[in-house]
Specification:
heterodimer; A: mainly beta; seven-stranded mixed sheet; 11 strands; 0% helix; 48% strand; B: mainly beta; six-stranded mixed sheet; 58% strand
């Protein structure tokens, strides 16, 4: 039972390079989220999606783009990486059933360093 | 803008002692979550609190929710070393339409000393 899987786990980028982080979930969840975690700041929401083909901005969306072409996948793109984007990135997914919402399940994280 | 504040941010306690972590939030919400994170690891769900007055317990941890006071607590009873971790609370709010976002507190880094 894979749950939420992130690819890659580690990456080092040079300033200005681009990359895509992949998140895949096998729980048939409608909601998917991308967070970044920095020391002392908890998790901050970058973008999220409430279903296939939909995306929305979170708290810190600048410098990132996302796509949800398939229900099970949520991609996070950095078009031109900056040192300020050095962080640990977490993907999460959750279900939506009527008016209830279960907790979010998290991937194992991607540690990104921009030099 | 929703603000979620946890305190303390750092907690060092002796084994066998009791302590409480507090989570205050600034806007109406009917559900709150507690997560645990070990160093270098992902987040593990501990509790989901869905209504005012909800109380849940698992082992040495007990969580409660007071939606009127916009306060949740995570109480640790007779702490043991295995509880050393960072604990996050997260509040679910409705953003656009019926979409829900999870906003996290800064986390409480708990160290249990022998």
């Amino acid at each position: 039972n894979a749950g939420v899987t992130q690819t890659p786990k580690f990456r080092v980028l040079k300033t200005g390079q681009s990359m895509t982080l992949l998140c895949a979930q096998d729980m048939n969840h409608e909601y998917m989220y991308w967070y970044r975690q920095d020391p002392g700041m908890g998790l901050r929401l970058i973008h999220y999606s409430v279903g296939e083909g939909t995306t929305a901005k979170g708290e810190v969306p600048d410098g990132y783009n996302v796509s949800r072409l398939k229900k099970q996948n949520f991609l996070l793109g950095l078009e031109s990486a900056a040192p300020s984007q050095t962080s640990v990135y977490f993907c999460a997914s959750s279900a939506w059933t009527g008016s209830m919402n279960t907790e979010a399940f998290f991937g194992q994280g991607t540690r990104l360093t921009v030099v | 803008e929703l603000k979620v504040e946890q305190n303390p941010l750092f907690l060092s306690m002796q084994e066998g002692k009791n302590y409480t972590i507090y989570c205050n939030y600034s806007t109406t919400s009917d559900r709150l979550y507690w997560y645990r994170q070990d160093p270098g690891k992902s987040l593990e769900s501990l509790f989901v609190l869905l209504s005012n007055g909800a109380v849940k317990q698992e082992g040495r941890l007990m969580a409660s929710l007071d939606t009127k006071a916009r306060l949740s607590t995570l109480h640790i009873t007779a702490a043991v070393h295995d509880l050393s971790a960072t604990y996050f609370c997260a509040v679910a709010v409705i953003s656009s339409g019926s979409a829900r976002q999870l906003t996290f507190g800064s986390g409480t880094q708990l160290t249990v000393l022998p």
